[in-house]
Design a protein that fits this description.
Layout (H helix, E strand, L loop, with lengths): L6 H13 L3 E6 L2 H4 L13 H4 L8 H6 L1 H17 L4 H9 L5 E6 L5 H4 L6 E2 L2 E8 L5 E2 L27 E5 L8 H13 L2 E5 L10 H8 L4 E4 L12 E3 L3 H14 L4
Parallel strand pairs: 1-2, 1-7, 2-3, 7-8, 8-9
Antiparallel strand pairs: 4-5, 4-6
The structure holds ligand BJW.
């Protein structure tokens, strides 16, 4: 879809909404990391799931049925996320955190790029691809033992066995049908229940319970700012839809807040 984006107008509006806020929550999704080179999940042309059916990859049932396919896909993504770098948008969010008395960054991403950009203690709703554990008993699995496994493209790789119990290793991420880490969910819930503004960046807003977080903020009458080049189910309800990209919009916004002298 081609559209012209008035980034300056959107930025001014977003900065105005944020200028008087004390408590800010940010929710990010795969679009946040797209400009770092991590493909998103649902984009028709480039999304990982245009090539691979998610139900064949991101469920516990898929891991039982096709362990080598699922493990190989995650091993490829594990290496990809280690090879890429945070972009200006990740750094802008780390900088923005310092401007508010209460700032919570909630991410659905498992790539660790927010932490690598300096964001302190982000809430990782869907776990982390930086660590692995065994499937049956959750024993931590040393990622050093992954070296030498698989090739440079996603392909079948038999999951190595846990040295303690022999069950297959898997990424420490949350698959469909699995429960999110309780502490992360509680922190995210508390943040949207207490925030003055919610900023939502790069998520299709279709996967729950993450997609319920903006719904909670909206029910409280909190303004929601959405940064996403495409419309989502959230767009019609947002106080501002900024149809820009994370790497462009967020540094602009941080710069505007700085110019406004926001803390
Ligand atoms: C840009 C950009 C740029 C592009 N700049 N933007 C309530 C109602 C209905 C269903 C459910 C419900 N509650 C639970 C469910 C079931 C299920 C669910 O939500 N299903 C839906 C598909 C309907 N949820 C679950 O199973 C969750 N568990 C749970 O709820 O447990 C309790 C329970 C269990 C069983 C039954 C009922 C309750 C677990 C969800 C786990 C999701 N896991 C994944 C995989 C993680 C590991 C991995 O990375 O592989 O998480 S799936 C995948 O989707 C991943 C993502 O974090 C997540 C969200 O995707 P995201 O981030 O939004 O990415 P995209 O690709 O969809 O969108 C990218 C966006 O960026 C697009 O909009 C672009 O336009 C934009 N963009 N470039 C800014 N440069």
């Amino acid at each position: 879809m081609s559209k012209s984006v008035d980034n300056h107008e959107c930025c001014e509006h977003a900065a105005t909404l944020l200028a008087d806020a004390d408590r800010v929550t940010v929710l990010t999704g795969a679009g946040m990391s797209q400009e770092s080179g991590v493909p998103t999940f649902r984009e028709a042309q480039t999304g990982l799931w245009a090539r691979y059916d998610p139900s064949d990859l991101a469920t516990p049932e898929a891991f039982v049925r096709h362990p080598a396919r699922v493990f190989g896909w995650y091993l490829w993504r594990f290496r990809l996320t280690r090879a890429v770098e945070p972009h200006a948008g990740h750094y802008a969010l780390a900088s923005m955190a310092e401007r508010f008395s209460d700032f919570t960054l909630v991410t659905q991403n498992v790539d660790g790029l927010h932490r690598r950009a300096g964001s302190r203690d982000p809430v990782e709703l869907h776990g982390s691809l930086e660590s692995f554990r065994c499937a049956d008993r959750g024993h931590p699995f040393d990622v050093g033992a992954l070296e030498g496994l698989g090739g440079s493209e996603p392909g079948d790789v038999t999951p190595p066995a846990c040295p303690q119990c022999g069950s297959p290793a898997r990424p420490a991420v949350v698959w469909f049908g699995e429960v999110l880490p309780a502490e992360a969910l509680e922190r995210a819930w508390a943040a949207v229940q207490g925030c003055d503004v919610l900023l939502v960046v790069g998520t299709s807003s279709v996967v729950y319970p993450a997609a319920a977080l903006p719904e909670i903020a909206l029910r409280r009458g909190v303004p929601v700012i959405e940064i996403n080049p495409e419309r989502t189910p959230l767009t019609a309800h947002a106080a501002l839809w900024w149809p820009g990209s994370a790497a462009t919009a967020l540094p602009m916004l941080d710069g505007s807040l700085s110019a406004l002298g926001s803390r």
